[in-house]
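User: Hey, quick favor. My workstation is busy. Could you predict this chain's structure for me?
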Amino acid sequence: MNNLVILITLFRAETILERKSTLFSIVVTGIIAILALPIIVPHLLHGYHLAHIFLHVGGITLAVFITVLAGFAYYRLRTKRLLLSAIAFANFIGAEAVLLVDATWPTIFDFDMMSISEVGHLLTFITLGLLALGVFRND
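Assistant: No problem, here it is.
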């Protein structure tokens, strides 16, 4: 019974969030595992195009990591600045996902009024606006 209590206290979810290196490793592994088959593997022999795809995969990975950190910081402190930052980084995940889809399948997805590339850039601009609101906000 004593070993069970020690084992349960070793694997608390809070310890993963307290150790940023562990959280970063989990996020990187998860993102690459999710994107490996549909996006990374089909483009392994495409040279510089693979580098472009890895640029967006890295952006998604960092955005997920920072979104999780900002979300938990907001949960602890409950300030509007942190809420705006968490929303901005979550929006950046969407922007990078849209730009990754555009880099991977450029001719498949298109909207009537604007291209998917413009949607990705618009979401990136919204991210910058939300971060600016969070920085210049007087709480």
